[in-house]
Amino acid sequence: MKKDCLFCKIASKQMDAQLLMETDDLVVFKDINPLAPVHLLFVPKRHIRSINDLEQTDGPILEGLIFAAKEMAVKTGVNKTGYRLFFNVEKGGGQEIFHLHMHMIGGWES
Ligand code: 5GP
Ligand code: ZN
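That is the input. Now the predicted structure with zinc ion docked in place:
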């Protein structure tokens, strides 16, 4: 847990957010400023700054994010219409919250 990190606070429930899914290792919630009809954030509970800071042993964290996305795709119905998963990495890559997270966007009419 990093002091003053928004996503650490959400993941540890020090700050309110409606969690759509939670496991021992991650939480999922809606993006406050959605870029698509469905825009979810998949956030590991452990504070990792970005993809750049991942260690080889963090593989299971990434695996967890992907399988959570697969599950949420079914729950939101975007598994049928299609969706994008992406990570913004550091300022030049559009990252604004420096706690690793994966975006899921979709739900457009196809
Ligand atoms: P980044 O640009 O770092 O990849 O994405 C950060 C995302 O977090 C943005 O899409 C932004 O809308 C979202 N966000 C920022 N603050 C909050 C918040 O307090 N609650 C939620 N649910 N999303 C947030
Ligand atoms: Zn954090």
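Strands lie at 19-22, 26-30, 38-44, 83-86, 102-106.
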